[in-house]
């Protein structure tokens, strides 16, 4: 299966790609199916299962589902309009999707959090139903939010699993493993970014790719800037104070005094990442990289490269994002980018691997060094659990992105000091992440039933 750079990086809304964007996308897809159906519908019902239920309130999965049924989509989300629509639905108990009659929906009765066993396909499952005037279900679909805003129906998930080992994308360089990527790069003489671009050109023009990549970085960079200017308390009840602005102000003041310690560069990387994830926690516009929970790592590393690395060039932004997308695709295809499936190693770990590879590439690394950088970054996130306090993408998520960015840059630096030859391959590391995720107890996989989520008071 071909994963475009625009699949890996999607403009959306916080706080979670799996638990906010995914349900919104699924609900919007269900409404599209209703429009194509010959039946006349009277009402709607929804149920959230597994991780979507356990942390759904903190991630606004209920709100996102309702908004998706009302016709909202992450890429064009308007917060002010959404608040008005939700208020009306709560008042009149009707959802009014474009192209359909008004459908009965009482948020307190027709949206269920099912805390029983997860649905069989994935930890993030939801069932959407449409009923007739008597309340009988006449159309039903099961959706799975599989990480990074990707959504599959139960049928699509089963088909994808069955075809995974047989189907190859019809692109010039259809690498599905890091070893294949290295072999194709060697035989073609191309970089990872050049191979990825050649694949993208099968589906879009160069002008479309350039414009899309420029838009992605614009949204990422704007998110950093908003985060560094934001103040106040993040929503959700943990009373977490936004810190990015204070850190930024202090760093600027220290720079003026010309007394900055060398290690302070780590604070700049953490600042950029925390700014993004504070915006994400506040429900702002972010780019999945590869998920919302890990959305700060890659923008932070790219901003670090542009603002702090001598000789950095904005002309290398496409190479940065194309390289990162290639590595992210390997993680997703061969393991997971979903915290609910493999823990935070799959989110921040994958983000760090993507970012390490990307900055190594734009700093002149060979393909072997780039693969080495990704492996180093991912290896040292293996086993990391996803245990957000109160189900909010705040603690430990915000700081964790900062440390992920630092690890990514350190991994790239180590790789650039070597010749690319190393013991543990990226493929072995990704497979280890998959196995570790399969062995990991469910309470450590975005359910907020273990780890920090139960050992730290959440109110």
What descriptive keywords fit this protein?
single chain, 459 residues, 60s Ribosomal Protein L30, Chain: A, 2 domains, two-stranded antiparallel sheet, 10% strand, alpha+beta, 9 strands, 20 helices, 5-stranded mixed sheet
Descriptive overview:
- This protein is of the alpha+beta class and 459 residues long.
- The protein folds into 2 domains: 16-162, D-3-phosphoglycerate dehydrogenase, domain 3 (60s Ribosomal Protein L30, Chain: A, 2-Layer Sandwich), CATH 3.30.1330.90; 169-455, no CATH class.
- The chain is built from 20 helices and 9 strands.
- The strands form 3 sheets. A 5-stranded mixed β-sheet has the order 5-2-6-7-8. The chain has a two-stranded antiparallel ribbon with strand order 1-9. It has a two-stranded antiparallel ribbon with strand order 3-4.
- A hairpin with a 2-residue loop joins strand 7 and strand 8.
- Helix 14 runs antiparallel to helix 16 (348-362).
- The longest helix has 24 residues, at 206-229.
- It is globular, with a radius of gyration of 22 Å.
- It starts with a helix and ends with a helix.
- Mean pLDDT is 95; it is low at 162-166.
Summarize the structure.
This protein has 459 residues and is an alpha+beta fold.
